[in-house]
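FORM 7B: Structural annotation worksheet

SECTION A. Query
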Amino acid sequence: MILNDLVRYYERKLEAGEISPPGFEMREIPYLIEIDKKGAFVQFTSTWMDEKQKRARSFRVPHAVKRSSGVAANLLWDTCAYVFGVSPTGKDSKADRLAKQKDEFQSRIDVLAAGCEDEGLQAVVAFLKSPAKQLLKSLQKDPLWEEIVESGRNLSFKRNT
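SECTION B. Predicted structure
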């Protein structure tokens, strides 16, 4: 039966890592936020592979949310507007919208972390709950900060062991 053959084909591709499991997708994430096991900021890391074509490394991430004009955060990855509540330089964004975006991002992670003892996830929660002014100061000292904010590209987390 054709349906059985399609299922076996899908399972082979999944085992080979050529496709993502349900609920996930491969997505370019140009920047990683490196944090330590306690959630303290370490540094930003660029994943750009080709500066000319601007291709970043792709990672398997939870499937992107659909959004047009509403506020809907991706889980554990998004733009700096959602992760930090900071808009790309030169773009007019309302402070209340940025606050909603940041709150939505943190809220999705808090729901996931409730009752979960995963050390990496708990480090992300601790990072996001850091005092905003103190965190922003340390982020702004990183040489990649301006590039990240201006680009408005996706970020995710990497735990530095």
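SECTION C. Observations
The helical segments are 2-15, 80-83, 95-113, 119-128, 132-141, 145-151. Residues 25-159 form one domain.

SECTION D. Sign-off
Analyst initials: ____
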